[in-house]
Amino acid sequence: MRLVKNCLYCNKELIGRIDKKYCDPQCKSSHQYQREKQKPKRFYNKVDNQLRLNRKLLKEYNRAGKATVRSGILIKEGFNPKFFTHYWKNQKGDVYFFVYEYGFLKRKENGIEKYVLIQWQDYMN
């Protein structure tokens, strides 16, 4: 006896195996996509996506190991300074926030907000 008589996505009659739920791979994919789209976004997915974007931007703008970038440029591309993995305080008392191995420090120079970008080094432990 067949468990499901019609495709769960397009409602066509199923032919073949008894436990078949979809008529083809496209219907299966479409049905699963629709189901996922209806679910609310999970918090950890949002955090993970933002951390990945932050890391990508910090890496892109910090190719030399240390750089200074206007904060508006990074924020315009989607950078969110509230998402970081850890922080490090140097001997001067400056607190750098890190997204994995790339760090940033917010500074204000001549009335312009900037980020000083650095890359994690072994001596920072």
Question: Could you explain how this protein is built, in words?
Answer:
This protein is α+β, with helices and mostly antiparallel strands. It folds into two domains: 1-39, no CATH class; 43-124, no CATH class. The protein is 31% helix and 24% strand. The protein is built from three helices and five strands; from the N terminus they run ααβαββββ. It has helices at 25-38, 43-61, 71-76; strands at 66-70, 86-89, 95-99, 102-109, 112-119. The protein has a five-stranded antiparallel beta sheet with strand order 1-5-4-3-2. A hairpin with a 2-residue loop joins strand 3 and strand 4. It is elongated and about 70 Å long.
**E-strand count:** 5
Q: Which of globular, elongated, flat, extended, rod-shaped describes the shape?
A: elongated
Structure classification: alpha+beta
How many individual helices?
3
Mean pLDDT: 90
Query: Could you describe the largest sheet, including whether it forms a barrel?
Result: 5 strands, antiparallel
What's the SSE blueprint?
Layout: H1 25-38, H2 43-61, E1 66-70, H3 71-76, E2 86-89, E3 95-99, E4 102-109, E5 112-119
Antiparallel strand pairs: 1-5, 2-3, 3-4, 4-5
Q: Could you write a compact summary of the structure shown?
A:
The protein is built from 3 helices and 5 strands, in the order ααβαββββ.
How would you describe this structure in keywords?
single chain; 125 residues; alpha+beta; five-stranded antiparallel sheet; 5 strands; elongated
